[in-house]
Amino acid sequence: MDVIIRTVIKGIAPFVILLGVAIMFHGHLTPGGSFPGGAMVASGFALIAVAFSADEAEGKISERAIHILEGLAVLVVAYVIIFETFVRSYSGLFGLFGLWSSVEIVTLNVAGGFMVMGALTLVVILLLRE
């Protein structure tokens, strides 16, 4: 790619990624959430991968790190589901954890966003290798 395109993408990609993360964290209050936020973060990574070669992008975006991030997001979702089902529903501690209930939506939005981001980024990386 051209030097101008690389320079512009170096300036734009962090803001696209930051906006995607902000949408993931703010999705429980406004339209958006895990999928749009994750898609925007993946779009920022796709800009980096397209502007630079696949080998250079692999140095900036590690496939192994994406797999680890997706695994952690799945563990967070599983933890929230198990906590919600067993601890709050069956233990009778609903009043104690009542304030925590709004945080679970944010947690699920962010974890879901990281899963979407990981999947879409892996698709882009695999397509660039072909």
Low-confidence stretches: none
Shape: elongated
Biggest sheet record:
none
Radius of gyration: 18 Å
Number of strands: 0
Mean pLDDT: 80
SS-derived structural category: mainly alpha
Give the strand content: under 5%
Secondary structure: helix percent: over 70%
What string, H for helix and E for strand, traces the elements in order? HHHHH
> Count of DSSP helices?
5
- Kindly give the count of domains: 1
- For the termini, the CA-CA separation is 18 Å
Write up what this structure looks like:
The protein has 130 residues and is mostly helical. It has one domain (3-129). Helix content is 82%, strand content 0%. It has five helices and no strands. It is elongated and about 60 Å long.
Annotation keywords:
single chain, mainly alpha, 0% strand
Helices and strands, with pairings:
Layout: H1 3-26, H2 34-51, H3 54-60, H4 63-90, H5 101-129
Brief characterization of the structure:
Helix content is 82%, strand content 0%. It is mainly alpha-helical and 130 residues long.
